[in-house]
Design brief:
- The structure is a single chain.
- By secondary structure, the chain is of the alpha/beta class.
- The chain contains seven helices and seven strands; from the N terminus they run ααβαβαβαβαβαββ.
């Protein structure tokens, strides 16, 4: 018996290296992680606009400092008034179990914007201990040690 016959992870063999490289390069062209978005925002010159695609109640509950509130349903009528087509956009929503940021990114791409999705959304932003604007002010949670190394600014990946 071969490893591919006994390994559940290898039932479908890995792609050829060139195909894998194309796939992973494409993923990086479409997505950014919360650590990279945070580092970019902290630099003071991120080079993109961060768009919170959630509805008004979610926005009021808490949001990423510096984000622009543009709910997905409002993108067709409001994007041109609030976004510069020359500036890339990164969208976010609740978290990995929500495809709101994906829908927002699609709507923006269909309007001609260069766009990426922040994978992890608000869930992983807060789990990594990054700041959140709330009605009571800016708050930070203790980073979840399962997703953010203790005493580290990032995962160093």
């Amino acid at each position: 018996m071969t490893v591919t016959e006994t390994s559940p992870a290898l039932r479908m063999p890995p792609a050829a290296p060139a195909e894998a490289a194309a796939f992973f390069a494409a993923r990086l062209a479409f997505q950014a992680d919360v650590s990279d978005v945070h580092a970019s925002l902290e630099s003071g010159a991120p080079g993109f606009v961060l768009v919170d695609s959630r509805g008004p109640e979610a926005w009021a509950h808490g949001r990423i400092p510096g984000a622009l509130h543009l709910p997905t349903a409002e993108i067709p009528e409001r994007a041109a008034a609030v976004l510069d087509p020359a500036t890339p956009v990164i969208t976010y929503c609740w978290g990995p179990a929500c495809d709101g940021a994906t829908r927002a990114a699609l709507a923006l791409a269909e309007l001609g914007y260069r766009v990426k999705e922040m994978i992890g959304g608000m869930e992983y932003w807060t789990r990594e201990g990054f700041p959140v604007e709330t009605p009571a002010g800016t708050a930070r949670r203790t980073p979840d040690p399962l997703v953010a190394p203790p005493q580290a600014a990032h995962c160093a990946c």
